[in-house]
Every structure is written in structure tokens, then in C-alpha cells.
Amino acid sequence: MRQIFIESLFVIVGMAIAIPYMIWPNPYLMFLFVFVAQPCFAVAMLGAIYEIFKDLKSKDVI
After folding, report:
1. Cα end-to-end distance, the chain, whole Å
2. What is the pLDDT of residues 11-54, one digit of tens each?
3. What's the gap between Cα 46 and its chain centre?
4. Keyword annotations for this protein (predicted)?
């Protein structure tokens, strides 16, 4: 199992864009936040849910 390494990278990329946007909001950072950071968070969340479901399924919990 690969754990959630890829998902953590997506969250790091999203946070690297979100934090500067919260400190210095401007149109360029807003564009990056809306079209890069938010999809990164969504992909990370869906990937983590999939990995958790797969792990619980393999251990016959579900």
C-alpha cells in the first residue's frame, strides 16, 4: 500500500498557493488558488477517501 504520499503532495502544493493568497491577495494568486489549489485539495481528499476505503475493505471491516 502506498499510504497517502501522493495526497500529501497535493495538499502541500495547495497550501503553498493558499497561504500567500491569504496574506497578499491579488488576481494572479486568486487565479492559482481557484484553478490549481482547490482542485489539488479535492484530488487529495478523494484520493485519501479511496485509500481509506480500500484499506478497510482489505481488512474486512466493511
Report:
1. 18
2. 999 999 999 999 999 999 999 999 999 999 999 999 999 999 99
3. 8
4. Membrane, Transmembrane, Transmembrane helix
